[in-house]
Amino acid sequence: LVGPEAKEAIAAGTTFTGKVVPLLMSPDSPPGVVDLGWALAASLTVVKSVKYEVWDSGADLFEHALERLGTERPVSHVLRHVIQVVANLQELPSIREWFLKHGAAEILDSIITEEGQDCMVVKLATTTAELLRYRP
Known about the structure:
This protein is mainly α and 136 residues long. 73% of the residues lie in helices and 0% in strands. The chain has 9 helices and no strands.
């Protein structure tokens, strides 16, 4: 979804959950496509309408993100994207509550304390865990 493809997708009314989410969740997607899917998700989930679209589509993406943070942890550059998706989505209170209820903050804590973890991953995980726990 770059250049002309992105314009066509937008013009056709393609949704985030209809186009990007299948890239990163499909078991048939090659690793490079999954990595690209998470990178796209990290940049697109900053948009408020995308956050609502993800929430309205159900918990599949949230569960998948937690799996990637926990048991199926990717390489550090992809892990940063997954954490960024969680950070972006948690800005909606309903999504923040879902992540808290399902142990996202604790999973991020375990990433922070992991030996040899990438410093950018640690910083992003720390900030995201703090955001999840923050009560205005």
